[in-house]
Amino acid sequence: MIRFSVNGQQQELDLETDMPLLWALRDGIGLTGTKYGCGQALCGACTVLVDGQPTRSCQIRLLDVAGRQITTIEGASGKVAEAVQQAWTRLDVPQCGYCQSGQVLAAISLLTENRRPTDADIDAALSGNLCRCATYARIRAAVHEAARALA
Amino acid sequence: MIPRFLADRALKDPVASRRGFLLGAAAVTGGLMIGFAPRTAKAQARAGQNPFAGYIRIGTDNTVTIFSAHMDMGQGIYHGIATLVNEELMADWAQIRVEGGWGNPGLYGNVGWGGAVQGTGGSTGTPSSYDRYRRAGAAARLMLVQAAAQEWNVPAAEIEVEKGMLRHKARYMSFGNVVARAAALPVPQDVPLKKPEDWIYIGKDRQILRKYDSLAKSTGRQNFTIDIRLPGLLTAVMIHPPRFGAKVRAVDATRAKAMRGVVDVVQVPRGVAVVADNMWRALKAREAVTVDWDESGAETRSTTEIMAGYHALAKQPGKAVATDTGNVGSAFASAAKVLEATFEFPYLAHAALEPMNAIARIENGRVEVWGGHQMPDVYQAIAAGIAGVTPDKVTLHVMKTGGGFGRRAVIDGDVIAEAVSVSKAIGGRPVRVQWTREDDMRAGRYRPAYVHYLKAGLDAAGNVVGWQNHIVGQSIVSGTPFEAGMVKNGVDVTSVEGASELPYAFPNMRVELTTTTTGVPVLWWRAVGSTHTAYAVETFIDELAVAAGKDPVAFRLDLLKDHPRHAAVLKLAAEKAGWDQPLPPGRFRGVALAESFDTIVAEIAEISVEGNQPKVHRVTCAVDCGIAVNPDNVRAQMEGGIGFGLGAILKSRITLDQGRVVEGNFDGYEVLRLDEMPAVDVHILPSTEAPTGVGEPGVPPIGPAVANAYFAATKRRIRALPFNRPENS
Questions:
Q1: How far apart are CA B661 and CA B569, in angstroms?
Q2: Nearest residue on chain A to B437, judged by CA atoms?
């Protein structure tokens, strides 16, 4: 039995300890906002925050999240999250939308640490998150817009 | 406000539409359904498989549900169709939702493909919807107005419609209040449409109509096929043949079947499926299954060998002729200068971020299939065939997909067929077949690999006197139901589009095609033929301009005298990019122009060279797509097409090693990342022409624009893609 917190709620899951957090969230808890894209930490679609740090949930096992605080896209809240999601909507960033849970969480994490990111900061923080629709130019613009809203 | 004359005329004069459709309406549980009833008996027989078919359903609860004939994979067609409907209907934007229509080719048949088959592709969504969805919206509004006129006992012409409310002087009523009465009215025919100058939504920017799914997609609430939850839903992962064409000889699943959560391991026509109660257990169990493959009929060549064969063929005369005007032979004989170039294009995976998947359930003789149904009629028939029922017993759930780029328009319905086969093999239980990234990348369906051999002649003044192109590669439609319509005189139009007809005035032109056969399954990939033809044509034109000592923009403009729309697009891009202005040191520009799917796009790339690779800083894009229904979505599709195409030409290729696909994930198959995305400025040409599509046409020009800029920087021509392959360095 593994215990950890997801979006502020305690979870107790009777699942294999080597199961990646991604599949525990999706198939075990039913939180499907976190997406599967590659299973190898190459695309960022499965990004969640583990104790506030952006983490590829396909590469972290249940064993390693025992006792930790997980935030998924469903639990993204607060001033920064609001600013990011508003900017994403205002600029109509998403096309298919499949990668955007990961993009949004990566942006929240960046803006939580750095309220005035430069293009280079954004490149460094978000280049691990693939978008096959290539909404990258709008992602960059939306991060800047969220930063302005938070200033 | 609605123009009064419209309401008056339509209600007075209901005559049949010129287009062979009669507007139809029906009272449905809780509302009014507007659709078009096809007039021919044959079309009527095809219609009606889906009792909920229609274009618009207005509920007594005031919801407006629009049924889209086209699947949305991110290109924004749901938004576009909603815009078309609401320009005429005048509902409140918040009332509207869009769902995928299916099961009625009479209603949803793709007009751009002739109307007989429903499908999404070839950037036809907007042109195919432009007329019929506006008419449906207008008919619905006229019926609501008429019903309100009866309810209030006032002349219909005195009623106005705005933001989902019907108004007569100071009285208001919602759509929901009158739909029951409206549904009983005769349906107006030959519904007049607003004049463009009266439009308030079409052609306007996003401040007016927000894309209604942006919020759900920014908050993780958009459901895709991977997210569907059903009682008792199982997960299956596939074991596909390691080489294309291999067949299962024997399966040993003893160990796997004993593992926790494993329900069954079943053999299906396309491989072996490992079924479990969740994805992780299915994946672990898959590792415990051993399959013995019969590879006697499999493709065992490597791509190096396949491509060597193509290069040899390219220098031979082509097997079929796509274009032959004038006499290129004598043109070359008399030319002052003859140039030749051979290009090589790799296989490309679509690599949409949601790996391929589908869900099937068979219950009481009925089949349900959830998936990215890009060709619904085809999949309905495939599912019915596998389950042994008639197509009317198959219900489809058309899901939005996490990308597509052509991959979901697969003609044999691959993953859909797998899901129905697996469900059938386990007693009809609901099951999602979910491919992993590696399955998605290695199970085939690629943009075909091609070799182009080009030759052109210039006279002493630098005029092009002859142009020849021989294309060698696989046919996408050969062996499919599309072959009859799309292969003419041995020429698959998808192999030569963007090469066989050019806007440039070449007095002598010959385009040949040699269609090859390999065991590698191929498919349309965003922008299809123009993904390779535009690269070859537009970089070779650039070579000719250099050889003629002319500016690449001026050289093209000289050749575009008979094509003012193309010339206008090129001029706008050049003007906005500051083509005549000097660049800072270390920066270089390249230009390319391509028409695909009736949309004309010019792109100018500004690059520097880092290491030996181009770094693209800025792309200026001009597009003529007729009327831009949603200008911001046109911009989004150009931006996305540029990023998609740029990643491919810089870094992407699928290779085979003795028949096995080498690349399995985004480490081997590289695609564009955020730090490589240029700034993109999109300029839309004002137009009063009917709209053409924008999902694909942003892709073709970016490769040659970057390659031409790279030549300007390095004097090197990159003729084998991708840029980063070792032989280019």
A1: 40
A2: A38
Using a 10 angstrom Cβ sphere, with 0-12 exposed, 13-18 middle and 19 or more buried, the burial of residue B683 is middle
- Report residue B634 as tokens: 């046109």
How far is Cα B521 from Cα B504, in angstroms, rounded to an integer? Answer: 34
Rg (CA), chain A: 15
Residues of B in contact with A81 (CB under 8 A): none
pLDDT single digits (tens) B209-265: 778 899 999 999 999 999 999 999 999 999 999 999 999 999 999 999 999 999 999
| H-type alpha helices, B498-591 | 530-548, 552-559, 564-577
Distance from CA of A128 to the nearest CA of B (A): 7
Please check the confidence at residue B166 and state whether its pLDDT lies above 60. Answer: yes
Domains of chain A from N-terminus onward: 2-75 (3.10.20.30), 79-150 (1.10.150.120)
**Residue of B215, B233, B371 whose CA lies nearest to A73:** B215
Q: What are phi and psi of B602, to 5 degrees?
A: -115, 140
Contact B551, B467 (CB under 8 A): no
Q: What's B94's DSSP letter? A: G
Q: Using CB atoms and an 8 Å cut-off, which of residues 219-278 of chain B contact chain A?
A: 219-224, 226-227, 229, 235, 260, 278
Tokens of B520: 């590698």
Residue of B nearest to A101 (CA): B220
What domains are defined for chain B? 4-218 (3.30.365.10), 225-296+356-434 (3.30.365.10), 303-347+446-728 (3.30.365.10)
Q: Is residue A1 within 8 Å of residue B254, measured between CB atoms?
A: no
